[in-house]
Structures are given as structure tokens and as C-alpha cells.
């Protein structure tokens, strides 16, 4: 892994850093919540081993300089409260963002704060041209995050995602580097 790959990012209330095996307990605490996993592609974690495997997959990607989630650490408590990162970074200088947050932290503007910083990193450091995000049409909280991050709604992709034995319609959002407030 190169030294500058996925550096620590600081936001007002959080620190984003690479996941480590010791995060498994705190990750399991929120990823086992059915409400958190309701619109995600992954199932709620059944045991802490599911969280360990999730972290292991991230570690394998970090080791190959492939983007994965940062852990979101709440400064006030020094605890892992969620994850956010680039799911795919395409050679065409575009990438997709994904995220999840423990339920007790919802609706406090936290993920919007985190996603804004990850978008800035993607444009300024990774030199991306376009950053996109998708959310199930029913996942209002998620597409509100995209709107609060100045992303543009591009339309509904019908039957775009197959997860949990069903096809789902998803809303597609994106932001271009030229649309940054602070280019
Ligand atoms: C989606 C998620 C990351 C949002 O994180 P968050 O920190 O609560 O987001 P924010 O507080 O920054 O913004 C959420 C916005 O949605 C609004 N919102 C949430 N649920 C809503 C609902 N059912 N109807 C209308 N607005 C809603 C909130 O009021 C807030 O908007 P506001 O600040 O204008 O009031 C979080 O709910 C989560 O982790 N969910 C489970 C995992 C998930 O679905 N991940 C995304 C997969 S695409």
C-alpha cells in the first residue's frame, strides 16, 4: 500500500480513517441493526464474524491500493459510528460513493458532513471528474444526503439493483468537478 493511499480525513465532528480489525465490535453493533441494512446490498450482520469479514475485505483492498470504506470515527466519543467510501473508482475519472451510519446517529447532518469531505477528496486528490451515488427510491434519508451535498438528481434507474431477492428502482445522483463550490 502506498503511504498516501486513503489518508485520514478530518471533518468538523468526525475522523475518517482506514478500518482496522479492532473495529469489528463497534461495526457489528450498528450493522446488525435491520433498520440500517434495510436498503443496503448487504444483510444485517448476524454475528461479529460478519463484521470481521467486512473489515477483512476492506483490508485486502487497501493492501492493493483499491479504494474501500473509511471508518467514520465520532470525535466526541472516539467510537466507530459508520463507514463511507468509494465503491468503484473507474479509469474514466469517475467514482461512486457508498455509506452507512449507526441508527442512533441519523438525522444530525453527520453523513452529509462526511460525504462533502469525501467528494472534496475525490476531486482534489484523486482528480476525479464525476462522483455519483445511487439510492433505493424509498431511501429518502440517503438521497437527501446527496441533495445536501449539491449532487444533481439524474433520474430513476428502473429495476437497476438486485438485492435481497428483489429488483429495486434507484435514484441516480452525480456531481461534476466544475460544480464544486470551492473549485
Ligand atoms: C442514509 C444515511 C447515511 C443518512 O445519514 P444521516 O447522517 O442521517 O444524514 P443527514 O442527517 O446528513 O441527512 C439526512 C436528511 O434526510 C432527511 N430524512 C431522513 N429520513 C427522511 C424521511 N423518511 N423523509 C424525509 N426526509 C428524511 C433528514 O431530515 C435529513 O435532512 P435535513 O438535514 O434537511 O433535515 C443513514 O440514514 C443510514 O446510514 N442509513 C442506513 C444505511 C443506508 O441506507 N445507506 C445508504 C445506502 S444507498
Summarize the structure.
The chain has helices at residues 24-31, 34-37, 48-63, 110-124, 140-148; strands spanning 9-10, 14-18, 69-74, 79-90, 94-101, 130-136, 152-163, 166-176.
Write the layout of secondary structure elements.
Blueprint: E1 9-10, E2 14-18, H1 24-31, H2 34-37, H3 48-63, E3 69-74, E4 79-90, E5 94-101, H4 110-124, E6 130-136, H5 140-148, E7 152-163, E8 166-176
Parallel strand pairs: 5-6
Antiparallel strand pairs: 1-2, 2-3, 3-4, 4-5, 6-8, 7-8
Helix pairs in contact: 1-3
The structure holds coenzyme A.
Describe the structure.
The chain is of the alpha+beta class. The chain has a domain at 9-132: Gcn5-related N-acetyltransferase (GNAT) (Aminopeptidase, 3-Layer(aba) Sandwich). Helices cover 28% and strands 34% of the residues. The protein has helices at 24-31, 34-37, 48-63, 110-124, 140-148, and strands spanning 9-10, 14-18, 69-74, 79-90, 94-101, 130-136, 152-163, 166-176. Strands 1-2-3-4-5-6-8-7 form an eight-stranded mixed sheet, sandwiched between helices. A hairpin with a 3-residue loop joins strand 1 and strand 2. Helix 1 packs across helix 3 (48-63). The longest helix is centred in the N-terminal third of the chain and has 16 residues, at 48-63. It is globular. It starts with 8 loop residues before the first strand and ends in a 7-residue tail after the last strand. 33% of the residues are buried. The model has no long low-confidence stretch (mean pLDDT 97). The chain binds coenzyme A. The site of coenzyme A (COA) has 21 residues, from strand 5, helix 4 and helix 5. Coenzyme A binds next to strand 5, helix 4 and helix 5.
